[in-house]
Design goal:
4 copies of one chain form a homotetramer.
Chain A (H helix, E strand, L loop, with lengths): L5 E6 L6 H11 L4 E7 L4 H10 L11 H10 L8 E4 L7 H9 L3 E4 L7 H14 L3 E3 L7 H12 L5 E9 L12 H6 L2 H4 L4 H17 L3 E9 L10 E8 L4 E7 L10 E6 L2 E6 L5 E6 L2 E7 L7 H5 L11 H20 L14 H19 L5 E2 L3
Parallel strand pairs in A: 1-2, 1-3, 3-4, 4-5, 6-9
Antiparallel strand pairs in A: 6-10, 7-8, 7-14, 8-9, 10-11, 11-12, 12-13
Chain lengths: 385, 385, 385, 385
């Protein structure tokens, strides 16, 4: 009988922070996780106000992540937080994550996981040492129809994969809005965001999705990166030719200056026998195009889906689930795995299907390769190991 | 500073109950409501197991709604539940709702509100007497793009309304599945569901949506009801010609035997100057067709939307919100109104935009008129007052 | 070896006439028919100018249909026109058609076939007497994916049909434009158009399509007709409940005041096992929704289609064919049947698949029933025999 | 008064030839061009049979293009063909085109225009010398909504262009079908098709479309070409990074092994202020995405379109026009320009909007650059001048 709610502490995510609120909704929707404490802002006043708005007890509204980790460690095992969710800008991922792991707390971390590949490797080592769980929120691979896509590829319904087209156009940075909008501000500042802009913010999602669905690793790439908006410090657009381990090719295109686009992540995977198409903005449909047979529309909530897709769906067909539910799938699977770990039992296989430190590290290597390829005059740059 | 979480008690919604789980997700997503107690099943064993699964304390897992209402009433004002959410089959709506109101508890109730119009009127009287809030979960009018549609009509962008086409095709009852599936079982049993089947289950949503968006009341109708599946006790399909107060006409078509359809609620409203189209399965888009100008696509999350639409959205454009989020809008608005009431202040206007006992009563009169029209040989039957 | 081009004479269709130009394009596209003569306008000057623009020889540009029929009759069998295409407003269909038949000419006629049912019956008798072919251009049933839909129903892939929803919204008459636009003018004038407006112009297409795809006859109806635009003489909108011979029900909705709509003819047919959906504005796709299996998209030009669908397609998949090609299918099938008849052989079955005088007569009875039902206070009016 | 029909002679396009039939339908639909003679096949027997099927007089069914050009030259100016339409495989374009020009005949030619850039340059010189018209059938830029897209870019509605994504996935060569299917056979044979396969067959359409809509020239590229099907002699897939003269970037992706795709040419153009999207398989809609305003759908046949778009439309909105009509726009504009030339007057500007020898030559240079880039280890290869 599973009735223990997991206790979550949050770093970042104060009032007006977008992604922190998403994490709380995602963690809260399934009733298995409760926010018990937070260091919700680097500004102690904002942290306190935010905690009050969220109904946190005063004594568990901390002024810093260090304080939170130290103080929670002192509480009894029953009472202290079980894991830390870190929803700060990129530059403030590594230190709280490392400290949390060092104090025995599991971690949920936003992507890209760190500022540098070195930091990512240190986290991976620490996870290996401690046996703790570090989950990285590559949200889009958590959609049920993405699970179905991966399942169809695995089953061989496409035959050998030949071509992968993945694109992620957004338009919200089409103008110079960095100075007015905090969301835009840190994402375009190399010190806060890392060496890449658009690619770190959204390109890494696209790469993760391509590898997740196809089960194939990118082995080389040819990147053309651009900064279209005058005065911007990081690239806001990029097109990349891809090579995969089995000889498949592809294109990854990401943009934050595709004026008029919202969040139009889309992937197409073609094999010898057919092609799959999935579009995040129409997330409950997976299109399966076949050679010499009618195109099929797989729909979330239907009984004919694979078990792994159904495991990540809450509602009957025709009741759309969206971004928060996909995000919640990560938290739900993470929580189930964590609970199993706490109970000393093996998690169910379907519960272990969430991105971990290995995905986070791979994301960092992807970004490093992208930057190297962007600067190179050679066509191909090998994926950095 | 808003930090009080509202406490919810639930009647029905034990394990395997679909709609109870939806209510809990919807209530939980925004972090303002917590489930504090429940009488989760008419079967005490199931009730207890369900409560344990949800992490409810043993002493607040009640064996019946009567027990819950009595026991919670004995608790201190700070500690007792603030409202009851009733998610039982139709036949078990009225008694717990009435008892809750009589003991001073606010109520959230599934639609159709009651078994009979008389019961609905009794609830309305009790609400008027007590000043308590009774919210009826007509989910679909809580979608943000439905709010935008209502706004555009109100603003006069369509001119005078001429025609309203609303349809709600489902296919899940295409075969005789009543005996095997509890969801289907009570919905097709007149004693548990009321005098109508398809119309009570989904037709009433369509009627509510049409009146909500257009701001117009249905004044007459001509119904053709059918039971296509042999042995079924209630209608599983119906087409209704509609007349509205301003002379507009329309069609309401609902079916649970539209084989291959999921939950394809769709509405089109045409006025002198243009037409609106909204499809629940593509909920984040509102199509605005204009005379002599390009069709416009309004999209959830965009800055150009009306304040009332934005009030019911959590995420930026391109991050789809779905059924649970729409449902959560009802809970969130209800909760904000309830909190204002508890604090003795006027709620914000946008928070009061949720369906109440008046909508529930109107729904019952709609069903009564549908049944009367279905039996009549005359073309038109006036909407029953 | 088939190398004879059929010779067409045209009544109506002078310069600026919309539908006459469509007939000429449709007749011309497949290279089997050539325009040899015409009485292109009731105004002799316009007739002559139009003939010159079309490159007709002066001596075969006639001042009236009477003159054309008489003069062409005098020509040798090799030289004279083989058939007459009549593309005048409704009121000017019957006389030239009857005279053409009386002089031994085959006829292509626009819908609705005549002004009255009596005229339609006279034409049917004359066709029966003479053995000539009279083709009525119900364009929409000539689309290849409509053929595929009919095929799937015939094959039993939907099981017994339960429900048919057909709709035909247009918006072009949303305002009072009759006085300025000749297309609108005669369509809204009872003397030129007949007793019905919207239903005669487009509703009859919808009814034909429903019966064509389903293979079922409408047996009763309940019509609500409206004239929304002040000063208009005929109905510009209507919603009709339908009953079919096998007990299936349905709705036919047509409007010319659905502001913002173009020519959005759409049909859905539901049976026990699945549903079909076809939308004229996306004509190359047929959607097949199934119980408990993914929805399938049948696409024009694919090899997996039925022979009757392929017979009506010119291009490989992905090369869209449209309205003119559908129209041309009627001419092509008519021409092949006529050629076979001229050669004294049986036409191929697939060539005989075009609407004839029987369809034209049925269309007139449909309109008569619609008008009777519209005036009746009873719910149901039986389809007039 | 325009009543002269132009006379067309055809080289290639015998029975069972796909593209020849398309040319005849396209030339025939508007009633301004008639097929007067042909050398319809390299096989004299097939040529004669094909001519008979098309109703050509025996004496104008020629055994070779040489015979046709010589014999037609001997006829009187009124009687002889006005232009030659060449619809043979690529390797048989140059010689008949050159000979036709040398004998004073205008030419319509399929793309890619020739086998080599040198041949293309020779044709361009001959056109310049003779003042004759050579039209190359880049069909897709003839769609009305493509004209509208070009118009919106020209008008500045997108601001400066930043990014162009053009893709052309087909799936029909997913398997090794060369030996059985003549269409596939010559397209994959270097001696008949030229040095490129997929890029010459469809990639060149995509490049033309990108330059046509944007008004920008490609200046550099980085091509990754693949042959996925074992035993195939030419590339069947390719992805190309693009650079444009104004600094815009882009991707061109074409494939004939994108299993399950039909003919899914699609282009997106993004500028500072918005983005355009057009999909050939939904050809009557142009999507205009705007910053901070609802997305607009421009639809063929609407009054609000630009004059150049309307010039290329035959039907009112909602009556879909397709591939043949687009193709016919080229013939219609070519014919009008040719007629003006024959009458010694200036053609109307809108009539001159069809692809000419300059477009054909640019297409050959595009292919040459693609091949060079595909072989290069450098990232960028400049567009060959």
């Amino acid at each position: 009988m599973r009735n223990t709610k997991l206790k979550m502490g949050m770093v970042g995510g104060g009032k007006n922070a977008f992604i922190g609120a998403v994490h709380r909704m995602a963690a809260g929707i399934d009733g298995q996780i409760e926010l018990c404490c937070g260091a919700l802002s680097a500004d102690p006043l904002v942290a306190r106000e935010s905690a009050a708005l969220l109904g946190l007890p005063k004594e568990r509204s901390y002024g810093s992540y260090q304080e939170m980790i130290v103080e929670e460690s002192k509480r009894s095992a029953d009472d202290r937080m079980n894991f830390v969710s870190i929803v700060t800008p990129n530059f403030a991922h590594f230190e709280p994550a490392m400290m949390a792991l060092e104090h025995g707390f599991h971690v949920v971390l936003e992507k890209p996981m760190t500022l540098t590949t070195e930091q990512a490797e240190l986290l991976q080592q620490k996870v290996a040492e401690t046996g703790l769980i570090l989950c990285v929120t590559y949200t889009y691979s958590a959609y049920p129809m993405v699970k179905q896509a991966r399942h169809l590829v695995k089953e061989g319904q496409l035959g050998s994969i030949r071509k992968i087209m993945v694109e992620y156009p957004q338009g919200w940075l089409s103008k110079m809005i960095e100075n007015g909008l905090s969301l835009a501000f840190w994402r375009t500042d190399p010190e806060k965001s890392g060496k890449s802009g658009c690619m770190g913010d959204i390109g890494t999602h696209a790469a993760h999705l391509a590898e997740y669905i196809s089960g194939l690793k990118i082995t080389k790439m040819c990147a053309d990166l651009q900064t279209f908006v005058t005065g911007r410090k990081l690239e806001d657009d990029g097109n990349i030719l891809l090579g995969f381990e089995n000889g498949a090719t592809g294109v990854l295109s990401a943009s934050q200056v595709a004026a008029g686009e919202e969040n139009a992540l889309k992937i197409r995977v073609y094999g010898e026998l057919g092609g799959l198409e999935w579009n995040q903005q129409d997330a409950n449909t997976l299109i399966f195009k076949q050679l010499d047979a009618p195109t099929q529309l797989f729909r979330a909530g239907q009984q004919y889906l694979s078990p792994i897709a159904k495991h990540n769906i809450r509602l009957p067909a025709g009741h759309p689930e969206g971004y928060i539910e996909a995000f919640a799938n990560i938290y739900r699977n993470f929580a189930a795995t964590l609970l199993a770990s706490m109970q000393g039992i093996d998690p169910r296989e379907e519960d272990t299907d969430f991105p971990t430190v290995a995905d986070g590290l791979r994301g960092m290597k992807f970004l490093e390769t992208v930057i190297a390829s962007g600067k190179s005059a050679q066509k191909w740059t090998n994926f950095i190991r």
